[in-house]
Amino acid sequence: MGKIWRNTRKDIRDFESWLAVGKTVYVINEHDTRVPGQFESHTYSARTCTGRHPIFGNWEIGHNTSAKGLVQWYGEVHETPPPGIRDLAGPEPDCRDEGIGYRSLRRGQIFRGRLDLDEIERMEGHAQDAEDEFQKEKAKRGKWF
User: How far apart are CA 19 and CA 25, in angstroms?
Assistant: First the structure.
């Protein structure tokens, strides 16, 4: 487990003295889970120190973010990737791996069971309800949208 710098004066000074060109640090991004398709509330991003500001002499992360600003904006900066959190630039978890009703079945495996008539009728009912809701919304919008 690496060091974590938080938004305090002592930690900011310690972070700026530790930082050097080419060092990579990790920050945690918070996401709004009310957005459709967003399943994770936290991911992390890697940030690399690119050098010092030509006028002020502060360490820069990227093109226009100072080291102090990075700690103040994100609240904490990690030396190593935070455990248990996915990298924002990495591949997303595949929704096909979550399964619908058959948790043991994973992607690439073939379902060899039988769907009974009740299950098929329930799925058709859900599909019909969704179609009816779509048609109601379409009628409300009018023909221009």
Answer: 9
Measured N-to-C along each axis, helices 67-74 and 9-18 cross at an angle, to the nearest 10 degrees, of: 130
- Consecutive sets of 10 residues in the chain, 145 residues long: mean pLDDT of each? 90 92 92 74 91 89 88 91 88 60 56 74 88 89 69
For residue 126, what is the enclosing H or E element? helix 117-141
> Which amino acid is residue 89, in one-letter code?
A
In this prediction the pTM is 0.62
Tokens at 126, concatenated: 């859900």
Among 49, 9, 10, which residue's Cα sits nearest to residue 27?
Answer: 49
How far, CA to CA in Å, does 47 sit from each of 74, 78, 94, 142?
A: 12, 10, 26, 48
User: Rounded to whole angstroms, how far apart are CA atoms 34 and 13?
Assistant: 37
Q: Tokens representing 78?
A: 């990690």
Length in residues, the chain: 145
Helix, strand, coil distribution of the chain in percent, nearest 5: 30, 20, 50
For residue 99, the model assigns a pLDDT of: 47
CB 27 within 8 A of CB 72: no
